[in-house]
Automatic annotation (TrEMBL):
InterPro entries: EutP_PduV, P-loop_NTPase. GO terms for biological process: biogenic amine metabolic process. Keywords: Nucleotide-binding. It comes from Levilactobacillus suantsaiihabitans. This is EutP/PduV family microcompartment system protein. The keyword Nucleotide-binding applies. Belongs to the EutP/PduV family.
Length: 142
């Protein structure tokens, strides 16, 4: 199993996706600090929303095999700066979340933001309902 770190804005669905992938009960849980779940590290949304926390992200990423950046399809903010992935020495993939409540244009905008941030492979999922999570699960378990 690849050890992965989830990074994304507050409320983008990091913890819900983790719960889905781990077969846990889906319930809202605000992540207050870096949390470790076997092979997945869940980071608080504040870590990407406040630049002073980037050092913590970079330090934590040193111990992972894969960095997963998540962008909610219903959040139109530019969360990740251009070439964000270059701060990591690990591969970076992207996940567009909340596709179940977004339209095609919103999903494409989220995808473009992840591409500009440097994600090499992008998945579009609904963590709440489990839509399109199988391929991501396979990649993480590879």
């Amino acid at each position: 199993m690849r050890r992965s770190m989830f990074i994304g804005a507050i409320g983008c669905g990091k913890t819900t996706l983790l719960q889905r992938l781990k077969g846990m009960a889906i319930h809202y849980n605000k992540t207050q600090s870096i949390e470790f779940y076997q092979n997945i590290i869940d980071t608080p949304g504040e870590y990407i929303e406040h630049r002073r926390m980037y050092t913590s992200l970079a330090t934590t990423a040193m111990d992972v095999d894969l960095v997963v950046i998540l962008q909610s399809a219903i959040d139109k903010r530019l969360v990740f700066p251009e070439a964000f992935s270059t701060m990591f020495s690990k591969p970076v993939i992207g996940v567009v979340t909340k596709i179940d409540v977004a339209n095609h244009d919103d999903i494409n905008l989220a995808r473009e933001q992840l591409e500009r941030a440097g994600a090499k492979q992008i998945f579009e999922v609904s963590a709440l309902y489990g839509d399109n999570t199988e391929d991501l699960q396979l990649l993480l378990n590879d």
